[in-house]
Amino acid sequence: MKQNRIFISLLAAFLAICSVVKAQPGEKLVKVHIAPQHGDWVYKPGETVKFDVSVTKNDVLLPNVEIRYELGPEMLPPVKKDKLTLKDGKTVIDAGTMKSAGFLRCRVYARYDGKDYDGLATAAFSPEAIQPTTTLPADFLQFWDKAKSELATVPIDARMTLLPERCTGEVDVFHVNIQNYQQARLYGILCVPKAPGKYPALLKVPGAGVRPYYGDVANAAKGAITLEIGIHGIPVTMDPAVYTDISRHALNGYPTYNLDNRDRYYYKRVYLGCVRAIDFLFSLPQFDGNQLVVSGGSQGGALAIVTAGLDSRIKGLVSFYPALCDLTGYLNGRAGGWPHVFNDPTHNTPAKVETSKYYDVVNFARQVKVPGFYSWGYNDVTCPPTSMYSAYNVIQAPRTLYLVEETGHWTYPEQWEKSTQWIFDFFSKK
């Protein structure tokens, strides 16, 4: 029994990490290495970018390998394509320049033994100067204040079920079921240190998709209450196959549900659910009533910023590669944020564009007043860096950006370690 509990605790800790940050991609037999010649990957508008390219097998340059490459602004159709044969396995590609702030991407495909291998690199042009294309509605604050007032009239009606098989000698683990906005329920996994006392709290908000959750036992064991929530109004302890079925059918495409109506859009209940999770944490006798950090990656990175912008009870935030940033970028000739809704012409209607402004992370970033830790890379093709900088650059609160240029929609362990250290350093200062 003891061994089973140790295994479950370790599994839960691992899955907690995976729910926030994606793992580094696996190794390939043939590697396509690409990097801008500037060590920091940053250029000034008008400055020429050259990419060093090499193709290796067993860490040895691969001779006479055929490549094809594409150049252009990230996420947009390439402006240049060409083919080359690399006699000694390496070359330099002159990519030209950009006239304004943004990101220029080089993608290279190498053909070896009948199979294609690829790599990419992205040069930044004055990323700190990128400004959003979305605008702030005049009644943005009033809209969300009214929504929060409506939520406040709904009883929390919290139901906690102990999960003995997930508990450890130091931590109690519960499945929680809370009343949310418009008769929906909010489910999550709560982990509470067993030792008597008052503790800070960490609210963990989820990335996109539909899945079970296991709770953050590891950080609870370090001395923080952790609450990991789902957003879809369904229990988070069911068989994984159930979530697969739901994601393929009932919740397939949920990020665009009712996008033409700001009061019925799918994310209204989601954003308010994050506020309701805070209500629940404040109801716990073990919570110290002050130290509360929200953390997430991708959709969760977006929700972390949204929650901090919506609710002053949040004291700090951690956001990895936030989604839902500057959604209207595609309508202005540049990359927009996940879920890339306006890259699809069928969604380009005035009603949907207007609704998006009330949910765009940029407009919540404008409201953030607490310190934050942020981390991403330039090679992200899910949450383009142009969109993320659009939100980051309007934040007026203290910011720490841990940039790992070569990463895409994934992280190195060091990024995870630094974010955890930031959280507990933040707790210790209060």
Structural features:
alpha/beta; 2 domains; 9-stranded mixed β-sheet; Rossmann fold; 430 residues
Mind telling me the CATH class of the largest domain?
Alpha Beta
Radius of gyration: 23 Å
Strand percentage? 25-35%
The largest sheet has its strands arranged as 10-11-12-14-13-15-16-17-18
How many beta strands in the DSSP annotation? 18
Structural class: alpha/beta
Overall morphology:
globular
Helix content: 25-40%
Would you list the SSEs in sequence order as H and E? HEEEEEEEEEHEEEEHEHHEHEHHEHEH
The separation of the N and C termini measures: 39 Å
* Largest sheet composition: 9 strands, mixed
CATH domain fold name of the largest domain = Rossmann fold
**Could you report the average pLDDT, rounded to the nearest whole number?**
95
In short:
The protein has 430 residues and is of the alpha/beta class. The protein has helices at 2-20, 140-152, 217-221, 240-248, 266-283, 299-310, 350-357, 361-365, 385-392, 413-429; strands spanning 30-36, 42-43, 49-57, 60-61, 65-73, 80-86, 90-96, 102-112, 115-125, 159-162, 171-179, 185-193, 199-204, 225-229, 287-297, 316-320, 372-376, 399-403. The longest helix has 19 residues, at 2-20.
Structure description:
There is one protein chain. By secondary structure, the protein is of the alpha/beta class. The strands form 3 sheets. A 9-stranded mixed β-sheet has the order 10-11-12-14-13-15-16-17-18, sandwiched between helices. The protein folds into 2 domains: 30-127, Immunoglobulin-like (Sandwich); 140-429, Rossmann fold. The longest helix is centred in the N-terminal third of the chain and has 19 residues, at 2-20. The chain is built from 10 helices and 18 strands. 27% of the residues lie in helices and 29% in strands. The chain has helices at 2-20, 140-152, 217-221, 240-248, 266-283, 299-310, 350-357, 361-365, 385-392, 413-429, and strands spanning 30-36, 42-43, 49-57, 60-61, 65-73, 80-86, 90-96, 102-112, 115-125, 159-162, 171-179, 185-193, 199-204, 225-229, 287-297, 316-320, 372-376, 399-403.
